[in-house]
Design brief:
Blueprint lengths: L13 H14 L5 H12 L5 H13 L4 H39 L1 H4 L3 H27 L5 H16 L4 H16 L11 H7 L1
Length: 200
């Protein structure tokens, strides 16, 4: 089996990790990198599973720094340890760094180019749609718990509607979310039926 379709149990090469994150960094416009990573890493290549990926999304959101770079470090570390984390981060930042240098040098030329502004608006709309897709995937993974749904709604209202400080909200909601997931056995959040039969 090739690295492009490797299973999570197989070792992914550092070069393959660099290529994927380089393409993500170069081809991403207007944000929306998290769902793109989900598609590239899980859907297309099978390097990780959703239950391994979604905790990384949560960590990327609550830790300091940019979500996408945090998630790149998380994915790289899961795939190849410290070296994988460094390669993933380097790959994702190389392309945007070079593009930003070039764009800055010609800033005055592009800033007044109306078709480019319209195009960027459209790309940003597409990025929002990709973010919504990741949100829907995360919601589906938690629909089997009433408490999980309550935590999601409360967090959305507290931060999105009431504009409460993120750190305080996270400090309260994280323990509740952990409590919601704790009774469920297995990585998928479903009871381990084999273990229950064995205990019986």
């Amino acid at each position: 089996m090739s690295e492009a379709t490797a299973t999570p149990a197989q070792k992914v090469s550092l070069l393959a990790i660099y290529k994927v994150f380089f393409s993500i960094g170069v081809m991403s416009f207007g944000g929306g990198l998290v769902p793109w990573m989900q598609r590239e890493i899980i859907t297309l290549r099978g390097w990780m599973k959703d239950e391994d990926f979604l905790p990384g999304v949560a960590l990327a959101q609550i830790l300091p720094g940019v979500n996408s770079t945090n998630l790149a470090v998380f994915i790289g570390q899961k795939l190849r340890g410290l070296a994988g984390a460094g390669v993933a981060l380097t790959g994702m930042l190389t392309g945007p760094f070079l593009v930003m240098i070039a764009a800055t040098a010609t800033y005055q030329v592009f800033i007044d180019y109306k078709p480019l502004q319209v195009a960027m608006t459209g790309i940003a709309a597409a990025a929002i749609g990709m973010i919504l897709r990741t949100g829907v995937s995360a919601v589906k993974a938690s629909l089997d718990s009433v408490l999980s749904i309550a935590v999601m709604l409360a967090t959305f209202i507290a931060i999105g509607v009431l504009k409460w400080p993120l750190i305080q909200v996270v400090a309260v909601m994280v323990p509740l979310s952990v409590a919601a997931a704790w009774p469920r056995g297995g990585a998928s959040g479903k009871p381990d039926k084999d273990r229950e039969k064995h205990n019986a």
